[in-house]
Write a structure and sequence with these properties.
This protein has 243 residues and is an alpha/beta fold. It is built from 11 helices and 7 strands. A 7-stranded mixed sheet has the order 3-2-4-5-1-6-7, sandwiched between helices. The mean pLDDT is 91.
Amino acid sequence: MALLRRALRQPDGLILFTGPTGAGKSLSMIHCLREINTPELNITTVEEPVEILLPGIHQVAVHEAIGLNFAQCLRALLRQDPDVVLIGEMRDFETISAALTIAETGHLVFATLHTNSAVSTINRIIDVFPAHQHNQVRTQLSATLQGVLSQQLLPCTTGGRVLALEVMIPNAAIRSQIREDKIHMVYQSMQMGADKTGMQTLNQNLVTLVQKRSISVDIAMNAAYDSDELKGLLSRVGLGKVG
């Protein structure tokens, strides 16, 4: 995906991998790390636990039982001046705040969140901060966010599982919408930019998977976070019958 590859080549910013537990977020993130890994790059990961050993990459394991949490690890690793930082999970205010600061100060940050869409991811990050900081956080996020990949692993009609993926790579319109607190318009911008930019909503990808007979209509409907919209999209391509 050319759009994602361009995002991965940015010198700084925040790329988020989201979805439920078991959706393969960490594997996708590690695949992207391998895509950009070169001897010239100083890459550090902060994980709990370290899931896969990666040659040439400095990996730090979080040990909250002894008081070493994500935020403390992130503050410590900045002294090593990494080019790329992978955060196993942005689970609290301290970690999210640290990730934004790291991305804003010249580093490329990969991280995961338990959210199901690009829009809910943006809202989740903003809402973790006190209300009086929301304007500042929207400004930070509009400048630093390089991409959101929201994924699910769904039962495939031929056995196994298949990846359903929503991709949001912020363009000028989306950055403006985040900054100006018009986040409800981001989804429409993703829909409109799908053909031109390679972005896609989850529902657009679900329709494609049904058309390819990779998943059933029932599975698609259960996976959608806006099933009414999906029903309309399926009807337009003659696939509206559930069952």
